[in-house]
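Re: Re: ligand-bound prediction request (bumping)

Still looking for help on this. To restate: I need the protein modeled with calcium ion bound, output as structure tokens. Inputs repeated here so nobody has to scroll up.
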Amino acid sequence: MDFILHYDVAAFLLCIIVIALFLSRKHFFTKSNTFFCLMCVLLLESTVLDIFRVYTLQHLDEVPLWVDYVVNGVSFLSYNGIQLTFFRYILTITGVEDTKIGKVLKAVSYAALFYLSLLLATTPFTKLAFYFEDGVYQKGFLFLSLYFTAYSLIIVSIFVTLYSKKEITRYQKLTTVFMALGTSTAYLIQLFWENILISNFVASVLLLILYHSLQSPREYLEEGMDVYNSKAFLEKTGYLLGRKKSFTVLAFELDGFQFVNQIMGMESGRRLLESVAKECQESHKGDLYYLGETKFAYIFEKNNSELPIYSDWIHWRFLSAFRVNGVRVNLTAKLCAVCCPEVEPEHEKLLTAINLSLQMCKKENYMEVYWPTKEEIVACQRSTLITHILKRAVRNKEFEVYFQPIYSAQDKRFSVAEALVRLKDPELGFIPPDEFIPIAERSGLILEIGDIVFKKVCEFMASKAVAKFGVRYIEVNLSMVQCMQENLHKHMVEIMDENAIPHCMIDFEITETYANGDNHVLLQNMEALIEKGCSFAVDDYGTGFSNTDYLIEFPFELVKLDKSFIWAADSNEKAKTVLSHTASMIDSLNLKIVAEGVETYEQAKYLLDMGCEFLQGYYFSPPIPPQKYLEFLRNSQQIIKEKLLDKAEANA
Ligand code: C2E
Ligand code: CA
Ligand code: CA
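Reply:
Sorry for the wait, this slipped through. Here it is.
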């Protein structure tokens, strides 16, 4: 037979070009790169062996029979090996490899390799793949299965490419489908015209296309920066985490960048980023990754001993200005070091963990590297989630207001109640105000939440339903952030007036421990609201600083003793003494006392004996929704009888 060898020669040359191109550029170590290299090597081997194969076939009588078998067998195996590697390459780039189906498909590829090796290795004895008879090359009974195996792998590759969930671009999808179709066409040609040795040539052309579209090193490099991009970062960290290797990510974020973007334009901003990246690259040999926005990272494998050298350099460098367009720009850098897998074992969450850690870096600690713990990241994540929920809840006014009845010893009824905000999220369930109020205060959302709560309280009272039961006023919690608003008093009066609520029906509670802001504004607000008829209570007295100056300085009418203070007195005589002295001190200042957290009759009794005017606690009722609160008020005489009078009688 006259074989046409030109294609193989061209394939050989092309293959050398692809390998040279691949080796000449900066490359990122990835699994897909390994498969790509393997494909190149197998193709080179396959082309060389194909040429040998032709030689042996044409000189069967001169070459020993075992050489014929070896050359033909290894040549078939190499060519099929390219298909197998391509198959594994597709599983890797589509991310299917790590799925359950991927594991099955990987097993299938090993089975195919085993089958092909067995078939070709035993063919001299079984004559199943090919054999030589009377000096002539013959196809065996299972010869077509060599083609069939390759075809099956190609078809599965197309399916995997088209239906994989991982984001590969349409262009990439098209390339892989084109690769698969090209290879199978070459196969068909060679199946029918055996002398046209075109398969290797087609494979080498396709490899060149693959190199430019999928395998291009640009894919892992950040345009214009000559540093690796976030895709490379994810690939590398995924590889390390997948192999349970320990490593630390030193991430840093530039601050003060908004100024550059706004004043000098985005283009200058980008140029500045590029020069920061360049300087970092030049000063250390470790690979730098650009994570987007103004964030960069280094990865330290095995030991962290070099990390301080890098972080110190960054700190030192940022002490002096950078230059962009001839202008000196001062930037600051926040640094954090995330240890994996201890702090973040899950690959999908690593970037989030880094972002959260950078977010947690304190502005005042610019010169330190922040090493977050797993717990801190989880807490920060929850607080970010809650902020998100709060924003939605503010938009949709999802907050509810519950009321907790307060017993008045003088009125002998539940003539007061405290309004307490409630938030329920469909996924997280009930979120306690102790958790979300501080978050709302930090994000400033407390102003809107405070408004929603206050409006709901006023609307509820406007129905006049509570007045019937002799409720004199409702206590509403005010955050210090609200109290620092200069026009708070006007705003609150407006809401009360809109609902025609007598101002004396509102008592505002403020927590002393928070009172470290501008006391002048707080005092102005208090005085203006008191003038309108409202009153004020100090909340949580007995925790924090319990500063008597505070009681003297501000016009409070009520003092709310904190529940922990009450509970401590339960089991501790000294605490009881402090409590009773505190009560008489407050009394002598002409202030009224509300005891919070009353849970037992015994507590209620000694608090009343001590001269507490108001009792609030689960012993009477937890905070309840408006309708239940009205029901409670309807039955209140019965409740007082059961909870106080009958007990007193029984104890007498
Ligand atoms: P707080 O102002 O000290 O409110 C009293 C808290 O003690 C309420 O918790 C109430 O349910 C709870 N409590 C009352 N009696 C008992 C008792 O006998 N046993 C126990 N274990 N707990 C009792 P809640 O509703 O979870 O509120 C927690 C904190 O959230 C409040 O403490 C207050 O600081 C804040 N908060 C609640 N609603 C608002 C609001 O509308 N605005 C602002 N700024 N803060 C609010
Ligand atoms: Ca309160
Ligand atoms: Ca309290």
